[in-house]
Specification:
The protein is mainly α. Helices cover about 70% and strands about 5% of the residues. Strands 1-4-3-2-5-6-7 form a seven-stranded mixed beta sheet, sandwiched between helices.
Length: about 575
């Protein structure tokens, strides 16, 4: 088969496995990696030209990190930069030291133990970003912190790869390593300075011209992402760092949400190819001699890494829930780990069987962490009573509560785009109202305006137990997640049979299930839009003047929304 037919066959196998995974409610990432294993050299051996597949997967990685960079505005870096840096560096140090001691305990020599320890240290930004996106938690506080310390890990991993690739196979001294690190860091700081200058002085003017054409804006964004990624790779840095910085330089642009939305489809397709490529590269052989080390290292990553992060975040004053959720994001090893071991074998530092060990640990931890992250909301309630040991006593840095009363007539969960109008309707009722939101910036902004509000995630059963649900007359949730709304109904109906509960659903089947669970009314946004349009046509007929009056009223409303200091509102109404 030529390469086109090979890709067609690979995508066909992948969709079959993905459908099976969806049917059995398993993580899709697992099906993608298994597809790569099946079409790889150890089974069907369908793909002969893995170099092209590797290129496609690198494009997916570049697009993912470019979109991550677009979201790294100065405000976000200011909010989570400290905890991300401390958690990222701390986790790397503790995991590498403990991993080194475990490897020595299994009889590996000191150089192999160093490589194994470093390989166990790094978590996969690509896999975690995919899982966070699937959960819709990239904007949650723990999601922002996790993305931050994963980027810190990537930068450290890049530095290590640069150092190893520059070292001779034997006879190198500590001074050689120090010089390489110093020169690499210096060169990196100079490049970052130049890029920041371009991002502040040149790109805004260029984007203002380019944005006149949607097609040109997409093409420019792709070119900026790939060219900068390629440039960084050529000068000795990693492609990933170049793609990330390409996004960071556009982070202050008013067009960043538009760019991000246009690139997501491309990112998702090429990322699927990355997971397939990753599965195809996993080495299999005689692992009987490594069974016990594989088990120990796997449990160390799945349990030890989250514990390390929870301890660090607890000491920094974060709640046990955010510490737990952020900790789960480091419960796997990265594709960097396999690249690192492969590089170590290539330069003559390692025996080839070390790759087999790391591959097995990687596959086990990627699968295990996928389940842990996707089902974390179900796992947390069982572990919550035992996690208090990781919390520092007193007020937590991520606890923002501006609750004034013991009871509220109206409670709004999620003050997002839909929540804005709901909150305004609550005010017109002249009843007491409370807002619960998982974005600390939103909570602080509402508090400045005198709105009673509390930071928290509606998925948190403990949070719902603390809220005055028993005395509420109406509860509105703008969160479309079915499991979250089902939990909210269950908690509310357990203490309040007469409360009006209004929820959001994306699908008609979910709406019916929520009605059966006890919802008073379920809004389906897509259906509402069509119904509103039909109502206007029925009311105004073909009278142009009536439509123009409605247009003026709508423009007035949109201008009111523009005044809200939320950039995603600005993008939504452009």
């Amino acid at each position: 088969m030529d390469f086109f037919h090979q890709i067609a066959f690979v995508v066909g196998v992948t969709i079959l496995l993905a459908l099976l995974a969806k049917f059995f409610k398993q993580p899709l990432i697992i099906s993608y990696i298994v597809s790569g294993i099946i079409v790889g050299p150890y089974f069907l051996n369908i793909v002969n030209n893995f170099q092209v597949l590797d290129t496609f997967s690198q494009m997916g990685i570049a697009l993912l990190l470019f979109i991550v960079g677009l979201g790294l505005s100065p405000e976000i870096i200011k909010d989570v930069g400290k905890v991300s840096l401390i958690s990222g560096v701390g986790q790397v140090l503790f995991t590498s030291v403990i991993g080194f001691l475990i490897a020595l305990g299994f009889g590996f020599d000191w150089l192999s133990s160093i490589y194994i320890a470093i390989a166990l240290t790094f978590s996969s930004t690509i896999i975690i970003m995919k899982l966070l996106s699937d959960r819709g938690d990239t904007d949650a506080l723990y999601g922002k912190i996790a993305i931050g310390f994963l980027i810190v890990q990537d930068l450290i991993a890049m530095l290590i790869l640069v150092v190893i690739s520059a070292l001779p196979s034997e006879g190198f001294a500590l001074s050689d390593v120090s010089f390489i690190i110093f020169s690499t860091v210096l060169k990196g700081l100079v490049l970052i300075g130049v890029l920041l200058f371009i991002g502040v002085k040149i790109l805004p003017k260029l984007l203002k011209f380019v944005s006149r054409s949607q097609e040109l804006l997409l093409l420019f964004s792709l070119a900026w992402c790939f060219l900068l990624a390629a440039f960084f790779q050529v000068i000795g840095f990693s492609m990933e760092v170049g793609a990330l910085l390409a996004g960071v330089t556009l982070a202050l642009s008013p067009f960043r949400f538009e760019i991000s939305s246009k690139m997501r489809v491309l990112r998702d397709f090429f990322l699927v190819l990355f997971f397939i490529w990753l599965g195809s590269q996993l080495a299999f052989g005689n692992i009987t001699g490594f069974i016990f080390p594989i088990i120990i290292f796997t449990f160390f990553i799945l349990i030890g890494n989250p514990l390390i992060v929870m301890i660090i975040m607890g000491l920094l004053g974060y709640t046990k829930r955010n510490s737990f959720l952020a900790g789960l994001t480091v419960a796997q090893i990265s594709e960097f780990s396999i690249i690192l071991i492969t590089l170590g074998i290539k330069v003559g530092h390692l025996a080839s069987d070390i790759l087999l060990l790391i591959t097995a640990v990687g596959l086990a931890t990627i699968a295990g962490s996928s389940y842990l992250i996707l089902y974390s909301d179900k796992i947390y309630p069982f572990l919550a009573p035992y996690l208090s040991v990781f919390e520092r006593k007193g007020k937590k840095v991520d606890e923002h509560s501006f609750v004034k009363n013991d009871s509220y007539d109206c409670i709004l969960f999620g003050c997002n785009r839909l929540g804005y109008d709901v909150l305004r309707a609550f005010k017109k009722l002249n009843n007491t109202s409370l807002v619960v939101d998982y974005d600390p910036d939103t909570v602080l902004e509402l508090a400045k305006k005198g709105v009673a509000c509390k930071y928290g995630d509606t998925n948190d059963s403990e949070l719902l137990d603390e809220l005055p649900l028993s005395k509420a007359k109406i509860i509105v949730s703008t969160i479309s997640n079915f499991e979250t709304n089902e939990l909210l109904i269950r908690k509310t109906r357990g203490v309040n049979k007469n409360c009006i509960i209004i929820l959001i659903a994306n699908h008609a089947d979910d709406a019916v299930s929520l009605y059966n669970a006890g919802a008073t009314y379920v809004v389906l946004p897509h259906f509402v839009g069509g119904k509103f349009t039909a109502t206007m046509i029925e009311a105004y007929g073909l009278d142009l003047n009536k439509f123009l009056r409605e247009k003026l009223n709508h423009l007035k409303y949109l201008e009111e929304r523009r005044k809200i200091n939320k950039e995603h509102y600005l993008y939504e109404i452009k």
